[in-house]
Design brief:
Largest sheet: 6 strands, antiparallel
CATH topology of the largest domain: Jelly Rolls
Number of strands: 14
Helix content: under 10%
Strand content: over 45%
Strand order of the largest sheet: 11-2-13-14-1-12
Number of helices: 0
Length: about 220
């Protein structure tokens, strides 16, 4: 049982969050009850030279600002004399704010010249309170080695049909702890347990996803 005006999360916080940070949630059960979504996609890269991701937040006529991030992990070793080895945490796009109908940002290109397979990690979080129709993550691959010529590989629509709620962090939450002070967390709809929440930090790279396990009573 969490203490009054607090929530508890599954893993230790990675970063310190001051009382200027905000927590975003959705007032619903099941998968619809999360303001942040993640998606992992395995890609056979043997015939792909390069890959990038475009974040299109103009998918619907209405919606909120979102935060987007793209990472990749993979298996290299296309050279016969080179043993296969894994690479991790290729940061293609750090947490980036994308307003509704803004010019879509693109990730840096991932060079797949000597990569056998890649796991693409997509992250999308709603950081506004307007009903959101969805954000498109467009994955493209090169069809020309030296020019900006791209072919659609696939796309994902993330955070569709959701309305987020914002709750303020009440006092500084230190990195390494699992308890976050929040004024009236139940009234703030943080009582949908075993769900991912998104912490929007003033420093974008310090934003993080947390998994809420307990919600205290309101004061």
């Amino acid at each position: 049982m969490a203490a009054i005006d607090t929530i508890e999360v599954r893993d230790n916080l990675q970063f310190q969050h001051l009382n200027t940070a905000d927590i975003y949630s959705v007032h619903a059960d099941g998968f619809a009850g999360e303001a942040v979504e993640t998606q992992g996609i395995e890609i056979n890269a043997e015939n792909i030279v390069g890959l990038r991701v475009i974040v299109n937040n103009n998918y619907g006529a209405t919606g909120s600002t979102i935060m987007a991030k793209v990472r990749a992990t993979g298996l290299v070793g296309m050279i016969p004399s080179k043993a296969p080895m894994k690479f991790q945490n290729q940061q293609l796009l750090e947490w980036t704010s994308v307003a509704l109908a803004a010019v879509p940002p693109a990730s840096v290109e991932l060079d797949l010249s000597f990569v056998r397979s890649v796991m693409l990690h997509l992250f999308c979080a709603i950081v506004g309170t307007t009903a959101h129709l969805g954000t498109e993550f467009l994955v493209q691959v090169r069809n020309e080695a030296t020019e900006n010529e791209w072919t659609k590989l696939f796309s994902f629509i993330m955070c569709a049909g959701k309305t987020a709620f914002k709750t303020d962090v009440a006092s500084t939450a230190e990195s390494g702890q699992k308890v976050i002070s929040v004024a009236n967390p139940t009234a703030g709809n943080l009582n949908h347990l075993m769900k991912n929440l998104f912490i929007l930090d003033a420093t974008p790279e310090n934003c993080e996803i947390v998994y809420v396990t307990a919600c205290g009573a309101d004061s």
